[in-house]
Amino acid sequence: MSKNREPATVAAVDAAALEQEALAAVAAASTPAELTALRTRYLGRKSELKQALRNVRDRETGMTLNAVRERLEDAFARREADLDRSELDRALSSDGFDVTLPGEELPVGQLHPTTQVRRIVEDTFLGLGYEIRDDREVETVEYNFDKLAFPPTHSSRSPRDTFFLADDVVLRTETSPSQIHHLEAREPPVYMVSIGRVYRRDAITPTRFPIFHQFEGLAVDRGITLADLKGTLLHVMRALFGDDRRVRFRTHYFPFTEPSIEPDVSCGVCGGTGCRTCKFTGWIELGGAGMVDPRVFENVGVDPEEWSGFAFGCGPERAAQLRFGISEIRPLWSTDLRVLRQF
Ligand code: PHE
Fold this sequence. Notes:
Elements: H1 7-10, H2 15-28, H3 32-43, H4 48-55, H5 59-94, H6 113-127, E1 131-133, E2 138-140, H7 141-144, E3 164-166, E4 169-171, H8 177-185, E5 190-199, E6 211-221, H9 226-241, E7 247-254, E8 257-266, E9 283-285, E10 287-292, H10 294-299, E11 308-314, H11 316-324, H12 337-340
Parallel strand pairs: 1-5
Antiparallel strand pairs: 2-4, 3-4, 5-6, 6-11, 7-8, 8-9, 8-10, 10-11
Helix pairs in contact: 2-5, 3-5, 6-9, 6-11
Bound molecules: phenylalanine.
């Protein structure tokens, strides 16, 4: 097509020649981009055909030109579909894309070691007839300290040890507030276990992390003794670490138990003869425990003359470390699946 055809002569455009030329070009187009350029050239706003249509004066020429336009539109649409299809065919064969191949496998997760321990603990205590509690992590000073008979000067009340959200609101430093909540909600006898996260302002080291879990147990009934506590802890330790475990008590102090003890479980790595895991003592510390202090009973309106009870608090992370032989606590807070898949 010549470029210097004057608009004035456009009305007299040779429609047949134009159509031939355009159809030949469309047939020769080999990519969608080329086709788009040709469409602009032959059917665009400034194309010869559109200008001629705009300048049409008689009906017959108008009908002829419109028929050409329609046939060209058709030709473009068909060619476009052809090109799309061959483009797809080419992509499918040249990229070697096999639509029958199975999809990529999604990574499969598994229970976190802490969760595995949690489930064992829950199952064990459910088997003993305990109720499972879940309490708030944001706790009042009243429940985290006061009602548990912490003396006003106790170091845990300091903002250097504890995360304060307000003057009288903290991130709980232990699961022991569950003892208070439970005794306020139920009349004894009660048997409950509460598992969850607790927070302390500790720097991160191989053995410490500012967030960790505890499982808290509380049993209040008539005539409960330290022997019941020992038997109960022995039972759960055997569920966690195997039937040949032994448990021993060392005296300790907690504001809300009297007497207070720290339970140890015999080391499973060396069987109690001494190794690096147990620092050559044959024993591993489990947490804290004791008989419920009468002041705690008074704070929740339980008669200490009629009822007695024991409480204990242990760390699932520590248990997971022992059970899975993990020497540090930090991997337990990793989100790297390669780390977590090992357990
Ligand atoms: N709450 C204590 C701690 O975190 C553990 C404990 C629980 C002690 C129950 C006695 C009774 O250290």
